Design the sequence.
């Protein structure tokens, strides 16, 4: 369990971005270098244990934790992004949101065939975004060796959508 990443550093914002959603704001975590360092360290350790060869960050808060992990581990970093943001040739996956659908994309050369990819985001909610990112990795013939999140909303059971692959989260609500 983290010592520095306390639940008190995660701010609850009711009814954001729409009524009925309790948004878990990680901004206060980012104001504590020690807490960020701890998150990056613990998730990096997990990625190393699972033999990660590339860190995949999910737009946009996944970049905040994923890039320093890649640096710490000396691994390449790859991005999954919302449709229309990536300039080069892409693969895409459509996935369902609470209301409607969205598309995630990845550059075709972001991961290599056979590479072991560790997928990172700030928060696991329903798991739809992480599952779509895993599909992108697999479309490029790479494999997902694990997932890492700073925060997990356990009551939404997002893990069940991640096909029993290893999932590490640092704080669960
Ligand atoms: P999901 O696909 O439902 O697992 O949603 C995960 C993505 O949406 C992550 O990128 C989160 O940052 C964001 N997200 C979903 N629900 C919340 C929430 N209650 N508080 C903060 N971020 C959320």
Sequence:
């Amino acid at each position: 369990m983290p010592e520095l990443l306390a639940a008190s550093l995660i701010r609850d914002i009711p009814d954001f971005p729409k009524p009925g959603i309790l948004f878990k704001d990680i901004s206060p975590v980012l104001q504590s270098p020690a807490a960020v360092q701890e998150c990056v360290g613990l998730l990096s350790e997990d990625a190393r244990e699972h033999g990660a060869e590339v860190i995949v960050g999910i737009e946009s808060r996944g970049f905040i934790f994923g890039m320093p992990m890649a640096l710490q581990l000396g691994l390449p970093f790859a991005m999954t992004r919302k449709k229309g943001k990536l300039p080069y040739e892409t693969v895409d996956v459509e996935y369902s949101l609470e209301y409607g659908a969205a598309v995630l994309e990845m550059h075709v050369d972001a991961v290599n065939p056979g590479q072991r990819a560790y997928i990172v985001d700030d928060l696991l909610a329903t798991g739809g975004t992480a599952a779509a990112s895993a599909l992108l990795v697999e479309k490029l013939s790479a494999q997902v060796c694990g997932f890492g999140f700073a925060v997990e909303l356990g009551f939404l059971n997002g893990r069940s959508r991640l096909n029993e692959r290893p999932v590490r989260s640092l704080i669960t609500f």
User: Anything to note?
Assistant: The two ends are 14 Å apart (CA to CA).
